[in-house]
Design brief:
By secondary structure, the protein is an all-beta fold. The protein contains no helices and 10 strands. Strands 1-2-3-4-5-6-7-8-9-10 form a 10-stranded antiparallel β-sheet, with no helix packed on it.
Length: about 190
Amino acid sequence: RDELGRDKVIKRPFYASQALLRPGLDDFSVEAGWQRRNFGIASDDYGPWFASATFRRGLTSQATGEVRAEAEAGLANVGASGDVLVGELGVVNASLAAGHNRVGSGARVALGFERQSFGLSFAVHGAWASPRFRQLGDFESTLTVDREVIATAGYGFGRFGTASIAYVDRHYREQPAAAIASLGYSLGL
């Protein structure tokens, strides 16, 4: 309402996501320490040292970029990723990482899409790694993930709760693949 009492209503569509930063806004983290092994099974079981750093920057109101580096004894990885808002549909994210470790050099690529809304929300994410790529914390080669697909969906019924479904399909390098599906319903009291 202006000084003469005239009302002006402006309608603009928008999409908000925690993956996106405002243009020019930075977010960063630095971590260092010793990796915890057998969490919940054994006390005081720590592995090798590690260090990692992540830097994110809001490039535009629709795009955020990220760079990451991580290292431990015998392993060093670097990577870049980006999150891009596609119209009012949702956010596409993509990443590429490369590194060198005790078994050789390798790379990992990931691609995903997510949409969050008041009613239906869903996400799908896929990642693929070359045979010699290892991530920080890959202690045992039998647990190293070769490729994975994760899909989730949920529908909010307002004060009547939310129904959700999730599916995870993981293929390991040295053991059989595992697929898990789950259904859920939550209600706030």
